[in-house]
Structure formats: structure tokens, C-alpha cells
């Protein structure tokens, strides 16, 4: 099993990054690939999950061990495959997802990409007692599901995306500037992961 890769970013797409490790290019699918390019380092470490199935061998990658652990817990839930788990991590930080599971916050969980009410209930049932050590602030309030500060509030998807970008080290001034450039390109029902990817692409490009 490949647990992590350390190398240079050779190529970026909206769904994956190609990491050059001593001359070998590994395609790694990530929640937010552009987040890996914000570290300001020539060499980056990507924590991976090596997924093998009958018709494909895939690598899924994350900037932190915390995300890697949560991803592996999520794919243990019936009905959640690697792609859906990746969407969950692109739509909410590990802390918020874990807190929502502990708080049985269906409103938050059903706002995550690919998650309906039945799957959210299954996540709570299967994972509530299995997330020790995953997520740093388990009982911090999660973002509201609606209203001006929610995922689908006045600026669709932006409040949650903004929190994720702040966690990556971006300043309030940088985020205000990028939102001014981005807001006309965000649809009324656009998902959080899409908003965050668009913002990261602008931030990465300068």
C-alpha cells in the first residue's frame, strides 16, 4: 500500500494532481487539488489511500493525516465509495464533518456533495463512536445549513469555502479580494467544493 508520496507538482487539474516523485508521475485524486499548490514549497507531501478494484488502481490524496483518516472511515460506510468520500472532504473540513456526525446534524451533512438523508443517517449510525482522534474540535458548532452564513446563503457556498481557505493560511484581505473577482462566476446553487476550487485556482494564479 502507498501511504504517502513526496515530490513536486508536475500538473494540476480540477480533480487531480500529478506528483513527480523521482521522475515518476503519480496521478492523485484530491478533494481540492489547488490547495496542495498553496504550501509555498517546491516539494510537497501528499498522504494517500491506495484503492484497488477489479477495473482500476487509483490513488486518492490529502494534505493532512487527519483528512486521510477521515476518508478511510467514510469509505467503510455502506453506500459511500471513494468518489463520494472525496466529495464530502471537498465540501466540509474534517472538524466540521466530524462535529456534524457527533451532533447528528442532518442539515449540515445533507448539504455535502452526494449525501442524501438516508446516507447521512447511516454515517451517524456507523461512525459516531468510531471517530476518536479524527477532527480537532469535535464539538465546535458547525456552520449553519442556511441563512446569510450558511452553505446556501447570500453568497452560495462561500462562507464554508472561506473557512477552508483561512485554514490554509490565506488572509482576510486575500479572501476578500478573490471573492470580489469570483462572485460573478458562482451560480446560485453551486456546491462548496466547486466554489473552493475556483477560489484556489485564482489564488494560485495570483
Topology of this structure?
Blueprint lengths: L3 E9 L3 E6 L2 E6 L3 H4 L7 E10 L2 E7 L2 H10 L7 H10 L2 H9 L3 H4 L7 H11 L30 H10 L4 H11 L9 H14 L1
Parallel strand pairs: 3-5
Antiparallel strand pairs: 1-2, 1-4, 2-3, 4-5
Helix pairs in contact: 2-3, 3-9, 7-9, 8-9
General description of the model:
It is found in: Cytoplasm. Residues 146-206 are annotated as: Domain III. Its main location: cytoplasm. This is Holliday junction branch migration complex subunit RuvA. The protein has 206 residues and is of the alpha+beta class. The protein folds into 3 domains: 4-62, OB fold (Dihydrolipoamide Acetyltransferase, E2P) (Beta Barrel), CATH 2.40.50; 65-127, Orthogonal Bundle (DNA polymerase, domain 1), CATH 1.10.150.20; 158-205, no CATH class. It contains 9 helices and 5 strands, in the order βββαββαααααααα. It has helices at residues 33-36, 65-74, 82-91, 94-102, 106-109, 117-127, 158-167, 172-182, 192-205, and strands spanning 4-12, 16-21, 24-29, 44-53, 56-62. α8 (172-182) packs across α9 (192-205).
Structural key phrases:
OB fold (Dihydrolipoamide Acetyltransferase, E2P); single chain; alpha+beta; 3 domains; 206 residues; DNA polymerase, domain 1; globular; five-stranded mixed barrel
